[in-house]
Amino acid sequence: MKEEVALPALSRLPRGFLRPRSLRAQLALWHGGLLALTLILLSAFTYVLLRQFLNSRADAALEQYAETTAKNIAATLYHQQTLHPGQKIDPSQFVSNDDLQSWGRYVQVIDPYGAKVAYSDALRTLSLPIDNETMLRGFQQHRPVTFQTAYDLGEYPVRVVTVPVQMGDQVPYLVQVGASVEGVEAALQRAAVILLVLTPSIFLIALMGGWWLVGRSLKPVDDMTQTALSIESKRLDLRLVPPRTDNEIGRLAGALNEMIARLDKSFRQVERFSADASHELKTPLTSIRGEAEVALMSDLKPEEYRATLRSIVEETERLSSIVNNLLLLSRADADQVRLKQEPLALDEVALAAYEPMERLARRKNIELDIAAMDPVCLRGDSLWLGQLITNLLHNAINYTPEGGSVVLSLTRVPDTEAPEGSGFALLSVRDTGPGIPPEHLPYIFDRFYRVDSGRSRDQGGSGLGLNIARWIAESHSGQITVASEVGKGTTFTVRLPAADEK
Ligand code: ADP
């Protein structure tokens, strides 16, 4: 069954502008969108903050100037009252146009009747606005400062501050100071222009940089795609070229390469297995056909026909044994063989496998013996474990020359790593045969592997017995090992986890 893993998030969007086919475009789209949003928010925030800052600074300067003027007027009034009491004062002297501080500012002094009693030159024809509420706040409530903005005095709005002239409890005058917001507006305009030019420029540079960076990072993915497209079952030797840096893509390439290597290995195994299997089946078939053809073509005596038929039956038996073994292995590969998990006495299973071998050993004049037979219980399938022991004994008798000996032994050993555990069963089959050369030992359990193919085929072997033995051992959570010395003999040892005694 084919399983597809969908990528979350983006895959839910409709295809089209928002979900372009290339990852690079998708990333650029998201990156660009987020960047634009961030820049717009940042610019707006900067502009608002700047505006607030400039306005409050301008107001503070205006207020300070108005306060100073009010204090000066109060000082003049106080001076007049103490030095020349009763003498009227000319209010027009309250405002001086020569004062450097007054530059760019409009100043006017209002008396409690709302009359403009003093003013700077620029206000000769104009007046700073003052409403009733401001008059009330200034003269009666002594509320110190009022700000307002006048829009009709000139090209730019004028910010006006009104402060009272405080003489003890009395307020004889109000001082109004106005200043055009032109300076602030000009600064803000300049800031807006800078932001309007800077923001899109930063956006474009970052977008292009992002596009380039993403392209650079995804280049190895494109290369890998090209290589992956050219990999098929016949070209599994090809590998993806990982990027030079060890990043996510490098690790992906590494993981894919490992996967291709595993596929390569199993494809090769399958190929070799099919080739070997057909070869194995072909040999007895050719032999059957040859014998039958010879018998058909020549005039044979009845006992000769019988001999031919016997030989054909033998070859057929071999054929069906190979086919049975192949069937078993392919079912085992597909996990279709169900092994029983019943409690059993391995010593009984070993003895049952041992007995039929005695006849074979006697025929070959081989001494078959038991060195030890500890009672060992374990959980498993007695039929398959019997098959495992039979395979090992059969091989030992088969490959040991006449006069040799084969020894079976079963011992129970405690588990040194977990002393309270049930320990292991160690079953070994030792022979005094020709031994297996060390260069062959790693492959001895492979399917169809034979050390001396001509000789062992003559002896009836198909090269599947040890592979089946290993499968049985491993299916019982055990393992099988071999130790051999050329000219001295071979020992196969099976180690199986034991169960508690009944
Ligand atoms: P076969 O059916 O050919 O015996 P196996 O898988 O049982 O297949 O064994 C694989 C090969 O290992 C044999 O062909 C033989 O060359 C070698 N072999 C197995 N057991 C022994 C042994 N006891 N002594 C020497 N060689 C052995």
Task: Please describe what this structure looks like.
It is built from 9 helices and 12 strands. With 502 residues, it is an alpha+beta fold. A hairpin with a 2-residue loop joins strand 4 (158-167) and strand 5. Helix 4 packs antiparallel against helix 5 (302-333), helix 6 runs parallel beside helix 7 and helix 7 runs antiparallel to helix 9 (465-475). 20% of the residues are buried. It binds adenosine-5'-diphosphate. Adenosine-5'-diphosphate binds next to helix 7 and helix 9.
Average of per-residue pLDDT values? 86
Helix/strand-derived category reads: alpha+beta
Indicate the percent of residues in helices: 40-55%
Q: What is the makeup of the main sheet?
A: 5 strands, antiparallel
Strand order of the largest sheet: 2-1-5-4-3
Classify the beta-strand content into a percent band. 15-25%
First and last CA, distance: 45 Å
Overall geometry: rod-shaped
* Number of DSSP-assigned strands: 12
Give a list of the ligands: adenosine-5'-diphosphate
Uncertain stretches of 5 or more adjacent residues: 1-8
Order of helices and strands: HEEHEEEHHHEHEEHEEHHEE
What Rg, in angstroms, do the CA atoms define?
53 Å
What tags apply to this protein structure?
single chain; 50% helix; alpha+beta; binds adenosine-5'-diphosphate; rod-shaped; 5-stranded antiparallel sheet; 502 residues; disordered N terminus
In short:
This protein is of the alpha+beta class. The protein has helices spanning 23-83, 132-139, 182-230, 248-297, 302-333, 346-363, 382-399, 453-458, 465-475; strands at 105-110, 116-119, 146-150, 158-167, 170-180, 342-345, 367-373, 377-380, 405-413, 424-431, 479-485, 489-497.
